[in-house]
Amino acid sequence: MTDQLIVFDTTLRDGEQSPGASMTRDEKLRIARQLERMRVNVIEAGFAAASNGDFESVRAIAEVIKDSTICSLARANENDIRRSGEAIKPAASGRIHTFIATSPIHMEKKLRMSPDQVLDQAVKAIGWAREYTDDIEFSAEDAGRSEIDYLCRIFEAVIKAGATTINVPDTVGYNVPEQFAATIRTLIERVPNADKVVWSVHCHNDLGLAVANSLAAVRAGARQVECTVNGLGERAGNASLEEVVMAVRTRRDIYNCDTRIDATQIVPASKLVSGITGFPVQPNKAIVGANAFSHESGIHQDGVLKHRETYEIMRAEDVGWGANKLVLGKHSGRNAFRSRLIELGAAIESEAHLNHAFARFKELADKKHEIFDEDLQALISDEAVTPEQEHYRLVASRFHSETGETPAARLTLNVGDKEIQAEAEGSGPVDAAFKAIETVAKSGTELLLYSVNAITTGTDAQGEVTVRLSRDGKVVNGQGADTDIIVASAKAYLNALNKLHNKFERLNPQI
Ligand code: KIV
Ligand code: ZN
Q: Ligand 1: does its nearest atom lie under 6 Å from the Cβ of 99?
């Protein structure tokens, strides 16, 4: 019998701590729905005490997700735990994840607490959490640099107090696989009642070892892995969900466990997270990179054509490549469109909003006959700004780009209730388009990021552009999709300006 490995996804919490990756509540909801579709066991939806916005988004996720446990992070203090407890109340299954640092350097220099005080605080934290749920996870922050005897002591105490999952984070990504595995093995051997809890690991990727450390810990007995889609996360990121899941599945002979993940949802999840955060996936990234399953050398191509397994250990379609189902077409009706948007987690606020989105869908279906889920996800991203909030709108565009000539853009924009012409030259047509918009908007923003992704395959695919703008410490991501990437770029820029205009709140606006 193979054991179950619990997949705890923290894309919406640690992933969101990647500089620039903060998300709005609606974006988090869409990712949460995709994680549920992928059959993640636990979704860490956020840090409820961080702000009202964080609280609201954890609560909103707890209200709609039914098939995954919803978890909120909390420092080991009463206020954080009560905020988390309130936020997860609507969940069908809710967890509080409380943490306190246990390494000498963190206890002495950061917390300025003695080891006994830290232990007391941890036990109290479990007591507060128990008032809300029986599903309580305790993390010893910086466990990777903590003393093993002290870890045994604090874990024994929190298990006695009621913790049900014990998480061992390598917070600063300092550990190496053999050593980390030995730590997990020792803890499981030495901590009384170790068999009554689930042992979990949370590895950061500072030395590029997050997945290797997590897998070594699984071999040593860990049965929960904390990870993120595309390996997003603080600094160099966390262990990547897709790599951990496919490693244990492909090498079940070694790991003797498996997850309940529907792997065909991995690539759609990766694209969704990349589109929303604007963090592109490197082409050679395992599992979800564009080249992960393409063979360049003639010898390899020949081998794969003769017998696929000569060079492939996994099948692209098993992780969701090319699985983009044709979902809707030119003749699909409004009701089919509405139900698919709801399934994808879109927040369609009103009939007017639905009509607007439907009109855009019909326009797209005229240009591109096959509409996939990824196209709809891009359309939803554009629709994050409702028609009423669309202060700036692209009405028409003309771009000039010719060898030896200066690229230029001429745009017709709707600004409020006025139609305005805008023109500019630039170093390329995208630059010209942005400059033309700025002749009108004079936004005073700084462009922090510009990225383009092909949403589906084929030359008729839409390009999805993300533009990140900042002004006075406020950061917004704008998205635009179109079969013409210059038009997509102009739309993304206007989408970001509309978000600034409407004071959209990103939850943790780090740059
Ligand atoms: O890296 C870390 O230690 C964390 C904890 C809060 C689990 O993110
Ligand atoms: Zn972390």
A: yes
Cα gap 362→221, rounded to integer Å = 53
User: How many Å lie between the centroid of ligand 1 and the Cα of residue 141?
Assistant: 6
Give the three-state DSSP class for 76: coil
Q: Whole-angstrom Cα distance, residue 28 to residue 43?
A: 11
Report all structural domains of the chain as residue ranges with CATH numbers, in order of start.
Answer: 3-277 (3.20.20.70), 387-502 (3.30.160.270)
Tell how far CA 117 is from the center of its chain: 35
pTM for this one?
Answer: 0.85
Task: Report yes or no: 507 and 481 within 8 Å, Cβ to Cβ.
Answer: no
Q: Where do we find the tokens 């066991």?
A: 41
Ligand 1 lined by 169 (C-beta under 6 Å): yes
Q: Give the phi and the psi of residue 2 in degrees, each rounded to 5.
A: -95, 140
Q: Is 173 in the pocket of ligand 1 (CB under 6 A)?
A: no
- Under DSSP, is residue 401 helix (H, G, I), strand (E, B) or coil? coil
- Considering only 104-113, 467-476, 478-487, which range has the smallest mean pLDDT? 467-476
Q: Give the residue, out of 8, 10, 14, with the most ligand 1 atoms within 8 A of its beta carbon, to mutate for a pocket test.
A: 14
